Amino acid sequence: MQPRHLSFARSALDRQRRSDLPSVRGSAFPSGARILVLSAPALVRNVPDVFKELLNAGAQVIFSGKQVEKLKIPNEILTHPRASIAELPLRRTGDARRSITILRTAADLTRFLSPDVDGGNWPRMRISRRLLKLLRHPDYEALAAKAAGLRLPRTTHAQVSSAFRDLEHLQPAPPGLVEAIDRLGVDVVLLVTRCTVGGFEQDVIKVARRLGLPSIMLVSSWDNLSSKALLNEHPDRMIVWNEVQAEEAVDFHGISRERVLVVGAPNFDRFFHEVQSHAAAPAGGPADRRAAILYFGSSKAAPDEPAIFTRWINAVRTAADPRLREARIVLRPHPGGSVPWRSWAPPDDPLLSIDLPRKNEPLRLLQLLRDADAVVALSTTAEIEAANAGRPVVTFRAGADAPGQEGLLHFYYLLEERGGFVIDSRDLDEHVVNLSRVLRGNYDPAPIRRFVEGFVRPSGVSQPVSPLVASAVLELARRPAEMTR
Fold first, then answer.
1. Cβ distance 222 to 202 under 8 Å?
2. What is the percentage of the chain residues whose pLDDT exceeds 90?
3. Which of 85, 145, 409, 439 has the most Cβ atoms closer than 10 angstroms to its Cβ?
4. Domains contained in the chain, number
5. Are strands 188-193 and 34-39 parallel, antiparallel or unpaired?
C-alpha cells in the first residue's frame, strides 16, 4: 500500500458505536466481571486510567505476561483489592516453540514483500535478519541487508499470504495455556499489545476462542499495525486510535471492519489533562527573547543519531537567520534509545542543554514543549505529543543514515503534505529555511489542530479515551465470544 493521505472521516458505524458505549460508572455493567489482561512489558503503565476505570466499575482485573516482573504495573493499580497478578505459561516449549516461531516470522516477512507496500524497507530488513538468524544461516547479517528491496509478484504474494494464514489456523492452542486460563474463570480477555514480532497474542486468541471467551485487543501505539507482527488470528474486537489504524487492520491484517472500534489514544489521557490544567499557550514572550528549539531523539530511526544531530546543529549555527543561529536548543534523547548517546561528546555550545528523559513524565515533557517555539525530530511518538500541546514540528530527511525514518510507512502519516502536521524538508538546507520560517511564526496551526482531532482524539478533544476503552471491554464481557476468525 502506498503511503496514504490521512483521512479522518468517521464512518456512521463508528459514530454509532461511540455513542452507544455506556458510561463505565453507570449501572449497565454487572459488578464483579473478571478480566484477564495480557500485556507486553511496560505497556500497562502507559494506560493506567483504563484499569482504574475497570476497577472503579467493580471489575476484577488479573494481569499477566511473559515476564510479570517487567509489567511495571503502577502501585495505584497493583494495590487495589480487586487487582492481582497471575503467572501463565505464555512461552511455548520444546520443538513446537522454534518451528512456530519460524512459521510466524516467515509470515511477518511475507507481509512486507507485497508490491503494494512502500515505506517497508526497514521492517523487511529487520524481519529478514530475524528469520535468517532463526534458520541459523551463517551470513544472516549480509543477506538481510540486501532484503530491503525484495518484492513478490502480486498474485504470488496473495497465494503465499493465504498459505501462511491457513497454516496459522491449523496450529492448535497450547494445551497448558488453555488449562491455566480456564482455571482463572475470567469473563473476557484483554490484550494490550504493540503487535510485537514473536509475541503471544495469536496463541492467546486461540485459547480464548477454544474456551468460548470473548477477546479484545487494545493496540498500544500508532506504528504497531503498520510495522510489526502480522495478525493472522483475530480478536473479537480491536480498539484503535483512528481511522488510519482501522484501515491498517483491514488492509494489512485482514480483520473485518465490523470488529474494529475507533476511540482514540488512551496513552495521552494524562498528558491532555496536564495540557488543559496548565493551559499550554504559544511560547511567545518578549520580542528580544531568544527562540527555543526542542530536538526529540528517536527510538530506532537511526543507528547513529548523535552524528545526525551534530550535523543538524552545525547547520543551525551557520544559518543566515540570526534568530536561528542564536536559538536556545534543548536535546531530549528518546528514553528507549539512549545507548548511542552515551559515548557522544556534545559540541561546545553554551546555548545547548541536554534533558535526560525518563518514561511517563507528562508534566516534564509538557514543560519542555511550553518553552519551545519549534520541535525538531526524525520520527518519534513525541511529535504527536508536540501536536497535542499545539507546537509546530519540523523534520528533515536523513537518508541512508536513518533507515527507520523513510523506511517505515508510519513516518509519512505525520507529514503535512499527506494530511498530517509535520513540516517536511528534503535535506538540511531546506530544513534550515523551514525552521527559520517557523521560528518567525510563519506557519499554519490548523493542520496541527486537525491532526489531533482526527488522529489522537476522534471522539472529541475534550473526551478522555480511557473510559471509552473500559466501556468497550466491559460491554464485550457481557457477550459470548464470536467463534469465527
1. no
2. 75
3. 409
4. 3
5. parallel
From CA 219, how far away is CA 225, in angstroms rounded? Answer: 8
Residue ranges making up the domain that contains 180: 12-92+174-265+462-477
In whole angstroms, give the CA distance from residue 36 to residue 462.
Answer: 29
**pLDDT tens, residue by residue, 246-259:** 999 999 999 999 99
Q: How far apart are CA 360 and CA 45, in angstroms?
A: 8
Domain co-membership, 68 together with 118: no
Burial code (b: 16+ CB inside 10 Å, e: under 16) for 149-168 equals: eeebeeeebeebbeebbeeb
Coil, strand or helix at 273: helix
H or E stretch covering 373: none
Same domain flag for 362 and 473: no
Give the neighbor-by-neighbor strand order of the sheet with 260-262: 83-85, 60-64, 34-39, 188-193, 215-219, 237-240, 260-262
Q: Do residues 216 and 236 lie in contact, with contact meaning Cβ atoms separated by under 8 Å?
A: yes
Instruction: Confirm whether 197 is domain-assigned.
Output: yes
Check whether residue 80 and residue 111 sit in a common domain: no
Note whether 401 and 427 are within 8 A (CB).
Answer: no
Report the C-alpha gap between 389 and 68 in whole angstroms.
34
Interval 281-294: pLDDT, tens: 555 555 557 999 99
> 194 with 334, same domain?
no
* 182 and 51 together in one domain: yes
Q: Identify whether residues 84 and 29 lie together within a single domain.
A: yes
- End position of a domain, from candidates 125, 145, 170: 170
DSSP states along 260-299:
EEE---GGGHHHHHHHHHHT-------TTSPPEEEEEPPS
The angle formed by the CA atoms of residues 290, 292 and 298, to the nearest 5 degrees, is: 160
pLDDT tens digit sequence for 292-347: 999 999 988 999 999 999 999 999 999 999 999 999 999 999 987 778 898 999 99
Answer yes or no: do 84 and 211 share one domain: yes
Verify that 188 and 78 share a domain, yes or no.
Answer: yes
